[in-house]
Amino acid sequence: MRNRDLKVKAEQLRLRLIRLIHEAGTGHTGGDLSVLNVLTVLYNKVLRVDPANPKWADRDRFVLSKGHCAEALYCVLNDKGFIDDTDMEAYGKEYAHLGGHPDMSIRGVEISSGALGHGLSVGVGMALAAKMDGKDCRTFVVMGDGEQAEGSIYEAAMAANKFELDHLVAVIDRNGLQISGSTEDVMPLEPVSERWSAFGWDVKEMCGDDIDSIVDTIQGIDYHIRRPHLLISRSTKGLGVSFMENVAKWHHGVPSEEQYVQAVGDIEARLKAIEESY
Questions:
Q1: Which residues, 6 or more positions from 95, have their beta carbon under 8 angstroms from its beta carbon?
Q2: Which of 19, 115, 241, 247 is most buried by its number of CB atoms within 10 A?
Q3: 26 DSSP assignment
């Protein structure tokens, strides 16, 4: 998919995401919006996956370690044909198949996630298994930046370097905010790049708000350097909705009817501008 089409797709998914959360009355809106561009690029340009054969042995693996941002993943999986529209419409209702965190009963979901700090460890296991089996499939793990306070992440980081897992790509959604405020006030992370480089990882930074930057960075990965890869995605919490951007309370806020209308207006105006610019 061309970058222009990816930009359109991301805004269309943003509309779907806002509607999903508004109608369900639940969701982690801010982080969903900050990570949506990365998920859009991964599923429409990078990952080798097949909705008709979700357990295909040679598929790439994707782990959403920040599982509280399930709504963004559900929108992407629905768009790709993994999740049915009926399941999306039932989200937030009693006995719905889709829960507040992804689980393995959902087609296209590799692990039940949401207990922060676990995803990278599982991803290391997946990547190591693929290497032992002589497969070239890749493993992508998306983590939150608040999640970086979890010690198990750094145990996984050391193991990935030891086993030279160059088909493992981890992404930090670096939006700077977590449920209790600024990450730098709660548990300072900087210098993130130097920290991960010291663990032996190949570290790159990209703008998670910009599709072109995401595509260029991921396409620039060398999968034959015998080192795992970390992409620091500098993003905006609540991206694409003016009154949500960089506001900590939207970590798990749900828009009112008036706010929903305003959010849709913001996104539709940007989508129209993108479509008219080409």
A1: none
A2: 241
A3: -
pLDDT tens across the length of the chain (278 residues): 999 999 999 999 999 999 999 999 999 999 999 999 999 999 999 999 999 999 999 999 999 999 999 999 999 999 999 999 999 999 999 999 999 999 999 999 999 998 999 999 999 999 999 999 999 999 999 999 999 999 999 999 999 999 999 999 999 999 999 988 999 999 999 999 999 999 999 999 999 999 999 999 999 999 999 999 999 999 999 999 999 999 999 998 999 999 999 999 999 999 999 988 87
d(CA 176, CA 184): 7
* Pairwise CA distance, residues 143 & 141, whole Å: 6
Give the 3-state secondary structure of residue 225: coil
Is residue 231 helix, strand or coil? strand
Dihedral sign, Cα of residue 173, residue 179, residue 185, residue 186 = negative
What does each C-alpha distance from 258 to 15, 63, 179, 227, 266 come to in angstroms?
15, 34, 24, 49, 13
**Cα–Cα distances in angstroms (integers) from residue 238 to residues 40, 41, 76, 245, 252, in the given order:** 16, 18, 17, 4, 10
Rounded Cα distance, 25 and 93, in Å: 9
CA distance 168 to 107: 22
Q: What would you report as the CA-atom Rg of the chain, rounded to the nearest whole angstrom?
A: 18
Residue 173 backbone dihedrals phi, psi, to 5 degrees? -80, 95
Would you give the DSSP letter of residue 256?
A: -
Burial (CB < 10 A; 0-12, 13-18, 19+), residue 154, is middle
